[in-house]
Design goal:
Blueprint (H helix, E strand, L loop, with lengths): L3 E5 L4 E5 L8 H5 L19 H8 L7 E4 L11 E4 L5 E10 L5 E10 L41 E5 L5 E10 L5 E10 L24
Parallel strand pairs: 4-8, 5-7
Antiparallel strand pairs: 1-2, 2-3, 4-5, 5-6, 7-8, 8-9
Length: 213
């Protein structure tokens, strides 16, 4: 997606893809001795033990931060999308983002996807929801939909041109409190920001002037 910055330590190398960072600050809060935006370079992989650094890296919701060397990061055992109040979709698990033509854009275990409709790096979040503003409490109405999600397979996120985000695979949607509110193998999620049935698409993209590839 964008330039990847590399910070080499004695035991661990940390990479940072600035274009995917949404400034959630989980790294700074979790291990400020390693992650200090006021310092140059701002990442010091040797500032703490490699296991501590790895643990904090996995808290980065967008996947902008990663570790190289040693044991590879393991995905969450269950695929999920958590709704951030007034914010993006936090994706965890084996995930692949495709473009409208079906070509792979990103394959990762951690993603932050736009749902306000204004991001300049769609389908990824770039914090534009903070300026729009975008409002949704992170809840899901109705009963929890049932689905056979046995056999945890990869999630595939494919945007429809000027339309919703089509998600194929064993998906659990969590509300802002982390409770499972929806389960499905085939889901259409709003990405224009105008749906009255958030997080699901209700066709509002057709009338609100939403444009996106």
């Amino acid at each position: 997606m964008g330039r990847v910055h590399t910070y080499k330590g004695r035991q661990l190398t940390v990479t940072f893809e600035a274009g995917r960072c949404i400034h959630a600050a989980e790294c700074v809060r979790g291990l400020p001795v390693v992650f200090d935006p006021g310092r140059t370079p701002w990442i010091d992989p040797d500032g703490a033990g490699s296991s501590e650094v790895r643990a904090v890296l996995t808290r980065c919701p967008s996947g902008a931060l990663k570790a190289e060397g040693g044991e590879p990061e393991a995905p969450e055992p269950l695929n999920s999308v958590r709704l951030v109040p007034d914010g993006p979709l936090y994706v965890r698990g084996r995930s692949r983002v495709l473009d409208a033509a079906g070509e792979t854009v990103v394959q990762d275990y951690r993603l932050a996807l736009c749902r306000c409709g204004d991001s300049r790096s769609k389908p990824f979040c770039d914090n534009r929801h903070r300026a729009k503003p975008f409002h949704h409490d992170g809840g899901v109405t109705g009963e929890v939909a049932a689905a056979d999600l046995s056999g945890e397979a990869e999630l595939r996120f494919q945007p429809v041109v000027d339309g919703p985000l089509h998600v194929l695979g064993p998906l659990r949607i969590l509300d802002a409190e982390g409770q499972i509110r929806h389960q499905s193998l085939d889901t259409w999620l709003c990405r224009c920001g105008a749906s009255k049935a958030k997080p699901f698409c209700d066709g509002s993209h057709k009338t609100c002037g939403f444009k996106a590839e």
